[in-house]
Amino acid sequence: MLTVYLILLVAVPSNTSISGLGSLGHPSLLWGLILLFWWLLSKLQARAYVTVPVRQPLRVALGALTVVVLVSFAAAMLRGQPADQISPATTALIRLASWGGVLLVAMDGIRTHADAAKLVRRMAIAGGALAALGLAQFVTGQTLLDWIGSLPGLTVDSAGVATRGVFTRASGTAIHPLEYGTAVVAALPLAITVAVHQGFRPRPRSNPGVWWVPVALILIASVIAVSKSAIIGLAIALIGSMPAIPKRFRWAIGIGGGILALGVLALVPGMFGTIVGLFAGASDDPSTQSRTDALARVPEFISSSPLIGQGFGTFLPRYYIFDNAWVLLTVELGVFGLICFAAVAMAAIGSALVAGVRSPFDDTRAMSKGLAAAMITICVLFLFFDGLSFPISAGLFFLVAGLTAAMRTISISDVELVAGMRRASRAELGRPTTALPTARSADSHYG
Predict the structure, then answer these.
(1) What is the pLDDT of residues 264-278, one digit of tens each?
(2) How many structural domains does the chain have?
(3) How far, in Å, CA of 78 to CA of 118, rounded?
(4) What residues make up the domain containing 343?
């Protein structure tokens, strides 16, 4: 179910919707609602056996965020809203429900290392495929997705190829290059972790090098994205990936990635000067000036409702365009909403880091740290654009968050597994043992 969501999220262009449903017609949003309904049904069913519940700070943070959103929505409707703001506000509630369904199913449905590894592998592949499409767009100067508009039952908003200087800014299936860059670099820590651990398989295949292909595609796509945020995100993703990588791989990945980046810059005339110009002339860049000016306008927009904001989804671009998801959240949900959303992000990162320390298995620790790096990357890049207004970036945020909570559950199961094996060993051998099983030898660890 989560793999279907991932495919719909990444493979179906963000500007495509089912005819007649408007902004609610993107297939990934509808599938997220199905996931929420499925999760609710599972909670209402009687169970033949009872599992010990795991305390999840992320569940509490998501509940708090939902309460603030509902209170803010009610207050906004009681104040009265222009006609064109009621529909976006209602749509925002439905989007939150869809994201919540994805997060909850990932949190409670992924219970074994094998399932988590399967989904992380597919996310790495999806990131590599998205990067490959972006590279093809960069080379051809075309979207390569125009044929989708001819499919019956689908509506495609007009979209062209963005350019910066003489270079095409790839967007893959995303609405905007910033959304594309976020999706690609967020997948990099997962791709690296999967490649280093040969797909997280108990019995590695004969061609483990194939897992490095998505890593190479993502690195190249990030360098030629012609975007400051993509370069910054690339640096954060690489640095964040280091704790999940064995020491013997770190220098190899760093040097190999540097050589690959320099090779790309050398082969693409003018690319090096363009990238240097992005940072050297940042103070004069209109997008940078817009983000700086936006911070000065925040007190003005939140003065009427500083605690619960103007209402989620009600602050339309006609008022002001904030290229910062955190600032826009402050305006729409107030201080309480910002705190709750930050709590969701921190709970997700904390869950992954706790799992990365607690589990006795190397591969579970590495996967957890990779998910933490992906989450940190997304959170930082939300400073550069309104990530929650774009389907792919928002969907990945909640999917990765749900997986971090799942890793927390899996790490607790790992500890109990090792404790059980120790008790069995004492009973069988008549003497205590302190030896820990390796990840490759514990079949139950893989489901």
Answers:
(1) 777 777 776 767 766
(2) 1
(3) 46
(4) 2-42+59-446
